[in-house]
Specification:
By secondary structure, the chain is an alpha+beta fold. The protein contains 13 helices and 12 strands. Helix 8 packs antiparallel against helix 11, helix 8 crosses helix 13 and helix 9 packs across helix 11. It is globular and about 70 Å long. It binds iron/sulfur cluster (2 copies).
C-alpha cells in the first residue's frame, strides 16, 4: 500500500482527533509494568514499551462475554417457550495503538480460528470494528522473547496501519484502505519520500542482529518433534513441576479456549449464556460427565499445551500456536518455558539439526 510520515510530536494530535469518534486503547505505564488500557489523555500512550503482562486479546475476546439472553417460561412447564436474544458485546469502533508484531501474529491466528469452520459472529462483529495500528519492534522485549525463532518478528498482513520509529518521526505503512482513510482524515501525515523509504529499509534490516535464536530446531520441525516425543520422559518431569495455575494460558495471545456457562436469575426464568476464558492446564478443564477426567495428570496437560502450540493448531489452521512473545515464561513460577521444553525434547529425541 502507501507509506506516510508523521513527526512524533504530532502523534498526540492524531490520538486526540481519533478520540472524537473512536475508543482509543494502547500500551500505558502502570505500577507493575505496561498494560493495554483506554487512552484518556494522549500522553498516556507509551509506544516505546517492552511488553505487557496481557496481550491485547481482551479487546478481541473478552474475559467474560455474554452470548445471548434467554427467557424460559418455567412456571408453565411443557409449553416449550424459550425466548433467546443474541448479544453482541463490546462491539464499538476501537483503535488499538502500539501492537507488537508478535501480538499481530496472535490476532492473525484468531482471525482464522474464529472465521474458519464454525464462524463466530460475536468475534467477527467485534473484529470489524477494531483498527489495528502496529509498531515495529527494533529491539527484543527481553530475554524471554523468541519471536525470531517463531517467524513473528515481521508484521503480518492484518494491520490497518503499521508504524516504525525513524529519526524523530513515525513512518506509517497502510495495510488497508480503511487504515489509510483513518490516517488521512485524523492526522497531518504526509506521503513519504523515496529517501524515507530507503531509510525504512535500512532500519528494518539493521534490527535483525539484535534478536537471538533460542530454539535448537527450526519452527518447521516442531510438529514432527512433538509427534516423535509424545511418550518422552520430559512430560512427567514437567508434570511434577507444574502448579496447574493456568497463568501461562491466561497471558497467551494465541490461547482461545473458553468455557460456556448459563447464569440463571433468581426468578429462575431469565438468564444469560456467557463464555469465559478457560485453561487447559486446570484440573477441571477435562472433567466430563460421570466424573471422568480425560487429562487427569498434570503431565498430560502440559504435553497437551505444547502439542497445541507446536502441532495441532498448525494442522488445523496452518499457523503455529505460539508467537514467541515470552509471556508464559515470564508468568510461570516454576520456569516452564516453550524454548526450554522444545529444546529438552529435541535433545531427548536426538533429532538431526535442520532435518
Ligand atoms: S505459548 Fe507462551 S511464548 Fe508462545 S504465544 Fe503463548 S504466551 Fe507467548
Ligand atoms: S504457568 Fe507454569 S506452573 Fe502455571 S500452569 Fe503454566 S506451566 Fe504450569
Amino acid at each position: 500500500m502507501s507509506l506516510y510520515i508523521l513527526p512524533k510530536d504530532q502523534l498526540s494530535a492524531f490520538v486526540e482527533a481519533l478520540q472524537a469518534s473512536f475508543r482509543v486503547v494502547g500500551p500505558t505505564q502502570t505500577e507493575t509494568g505496561y498494560a493495554f488500557a483506554d487512552i484518556v489523555d494522549p500522553e498516556q500512550l507509551e509506544l516505546d514499551y517492552d511488553t505487557t503482562v496481557l496481550p491485547p486479546k481482551k479487546y478481541f475476546l473478552p474475559q467474560r462475554e455474554v452470548l445471548f439472553n434467554f427467557h424460559a417460561n418455567a412456571l408453565e412447564p411443557g409449553t416449550g417457550q424459550l425466548e433467546v436474544e443474541p448479544v453482541f458485546q463490546d462491539v464499538t469502533p476501537t483503535v488499538i495503538f502500539g501492537v507488537h508484531t508478535c501480538d499481530m501474529n496472535g490476532i492473525m491466528l484468531y482471525d482464522k480460528v474464529f472465521a474458519e469452520g464454525f464462524r463466530d459472529e460475536h468475534y467477527m462483529e467485534r473484529r470489524d470494528q477494531i483498527y489495528v495500528i502496529g509498531i515495529e519492534c527494533l529491539t527484543p522485549c527481553d530475554d524471554a522473547s523468541f519471536c525470531k525463532d517463531m517467524g513473528t518478528l515481521t508484521a503480518p498482513p492484518i494491520y490497518d496501519l503499521h508504524m516504525t520509529e525513524v529519526n524523530g518521526s513515525y513512518l506509517l505503512d497502510t495495510g488497508s484502505e480503511r487504515g489509510e482513510a483513518l490516517l488521512l482524515e485524523y492526522s497531518e501525515a504526509k506521503m513519504a519520500k523515496s529517501e524515507d523509504m530507503q531509510l525504512l529499509g535500512r532500519t528494518l534490516s539493521a534490527k535483525w542482529p539484535h534478536f537471538r535464536h533460542r530454539l535448537k530446531m527450526s519452527r518447521d520441525q516442531t510438529p514432527s518433534l512433538l509427534s516423535l516425543g509424545y511418550d518422552a520422559h520430559i512430560w512427567e518431569d514437567l508434570g511434577e513441576r507444574c502448579l496447574a495455575c493456568g497463568s501461562c494460558t491466561n497471558v497467551c495471545p494465541t490461547c482461545f479456549c473458553f468455557d460456556v456457562q448459563d447464569e440463571l436469575d433468581i426468578n429462575m426464568e431469565d438468564g444469560e449464556r456467557v463464555r469465559v476464558w478457560d485453561s487447559c492446564q486446570l484440573h477441571e478443564f477435562a472433567l466430563v460427565a460421570g466424573g471422568h477426567n480425560f487429562r487427569e495428570s498434570k503431565a498430560s496437560r502440559v504435553r497437551h499445551r505444547l502439542m497445541r502450540k507446536g502441532k495441532y493448531i498448525k494442522q488445523v489452521h496452518g499457523l503455529l500456536g505460539c508467537t514467541g512473545c515470552g509471556r508464559c515464561e515470564r508468568a510461570c513460577l516454576v520456569d516452564i518455558t516453550i524454548p526450554g521444553t522444545l529444546n529438552a525434547l529435541y535433545e531427548e529425541m536426538q533429532l538431526e539439526p535442520g532435518g
